[in-house]
Design a protein that fits this description.
This protein has one domain. The termini are far apart. The chain has helices spanning 2-32, 40-67, 69-94, 97-120, 124-134, 142-170, 173-199, 205-231, 236-254, 260-267, 271-284, 288-293, 296-322, 327-345, 347-362, 372-385. α6 (142-170) runs antiparallel to α14 (327-345). It is mainly alpha-helical and 386 residues long. It is built from 16 helices and no strands. The chain crosses the membrane at residues 7-31, 43-61, 142-161, 167-188, 298-320, 332-359.
Length: 386
Amino acid sequence: MRKLFQIIFYIQLILISILVIVLTIRGFVYAARSTNHFRPEKWYPPLLGSAASAGIVSYLWEWISFHDPSKAIKIAFCVGPLLTCAVGILHILIGCPISLAIGTIAIISSVIQSLYTCWVKPRFDYATKILTVSTSFPPDKTATFVILSIITCLVYSSFLVTGIGGATAAGTGLDILFIIVILLTYTWTMQVIKNMLDTVQHLVGRVCIGSAVVPVIGTIRGSARAMKSVVGGTDEFLFSCADYYSRLASTLITYGNRWGFVHVGVYNKGFMQASADTWGAFKTAELIPLIDSDLTGAFCFFSGVAVGSICTLVGGTWALAIHKSYATEVSIYAFFIGYFICRVALAWQQACVSAYYVAYAENPQSLQFDATIPVRIQELLQRYNV
């Protein structure tokens, strides 16, 4: 499986590169015709400008979150929903049917984010502590590695943007399929780059497997937890369905979780075996409730959404001012770029937190650990007992 996924990953990179080059050349040929309405000079600058903004803002945000985690966490959870709401207003101002739908979803999402922020606000202090203690001794050349990762993602994103522009110039049904394929491969590639920060010294095959599996399983487990908390025990049928779905998610998370990347990097294990071993260690150390309540993943997600929203506002407003019909698609692509580049910039901090949890689970009695985790465990036990 490792070799298979590695081969598939490299093949898709080669095929996508060829496709993007062909689409780019064809796009400029189409744009040169007087009968074509595609204007490269009005389509590319807003999107490339938003990509540049993604790189700058992501690096600044990574710097802030490392030097002042408390402030970064508060900004991400409090300002993120406002930026999402601003994106919704922008799409409503654009006015086309797709933009209206996206704008409505964005505003609803901002409300959900705000409610979630209010719910998890008591966890901010612990999130700050765990982020601070786990990144207190960053790996060698971390700043250089982060900068190189951001630059790599910017170059790759800008390269794919040229292909998307070429497909947009023709605008056929097949070109829409090409754009979807490009976005899907872009998502997988950026996940691989993000997860490579844990396992850079080994082959990418195991990382490719995990990068394809973890987002899917994480979504299933998150939806299962949300479903079970909403359904409760009010309806026997719904409760039984939610309980079955929850047990399925619990089984899947054992063999595909992001903490498994730590064992992949340290012990060069296969990804499924690494996931099972780390999850088993969490169960033995009774860390599952602590892992479930940890806000590091949510912080990185909210940060990605915030940076993606900023890029959307930059690219979407620019496109709205110079060519309104391009504003919707430019806004969508800008959000993808901003979100993933920010996640790559913060990946090393999330990796440090994951490694800290895994190391603690393997040897909770080690004198190298302070009281951050034990104190938090006691707080959770007292809360459950009450």
